[in-house]
Write a structure and sequence with these properties.
The protein is of the alpha+beta class and about 140 residues long. It has one helix and four strands, in the order αββββ. It has one domain. The longest helix is centred in the N-terminal third of the chain and has 59 residues. It is elongated. The termini are far apart.
């Protein structure tokens, strides 16, 4: 069998081997790209779950604030509740105290209560908290 030499001095079998290396390098690049894409999709899914969890906690705080503002009478000084969610329990702690606000003439403004709502939950074994403060006015 006679090997045919090409003008650049390579044989046909050498050219085929070079093409095999090209294919192997191409497949390697493709695999690395697919692995990177898979990791990116995993990160996006994780971020989406965390965002949904944060939205749920904000909704819990917002709903409780609306309940307190709509209720007659002064808010409870201390209240704790555990709210069940799809992401685990959220502990909701409410504290209320007189706001202690004064006018420019240093006159106490009565009937205004500062309410603090704190939501606590666990994410991956780490305690997370979000806090909301607002004022409630009740005449008398």
């Amino acid at each position: 069998m006679q090997l045919v030499r090409q003008s650049n001095g390579r044989t046909r079998s050498g050219r085929r081997a070079f093409a095999l290396y090209e294919v192997l390098i191409g497949v390697t690049i493709f695999v690395v790209g697919v692995l990177a894409l898979g990791r990116a999709v995993g990160n996006v899914m994780n971020a989406s779950m965390l965002s949904a969890q944060e939205d749920r906690v904000r909704l819990i705080l917002s709903n409780r604030m609306a309940e307190i503002q709509a209720a007659p009478g002064k808010p409870d000084e201390k209240d704790e509740e555990e709210v069940a969610t799809a992401y685990g329990p959220v502990k909701l702690v409410q504290t209320a105290a007189p706001a202690g606000l004064k006018t420019e003439q240093e006159v106490d403004v009565g009937g205004i209560t500062l309410v603090r709502l704190v939501a606590e939950w666990s994410r991956g074994g780490v305690t997370q908290t979000r806090q909301l403060e607002f004022y409630v006015y009740r005449a008398g």
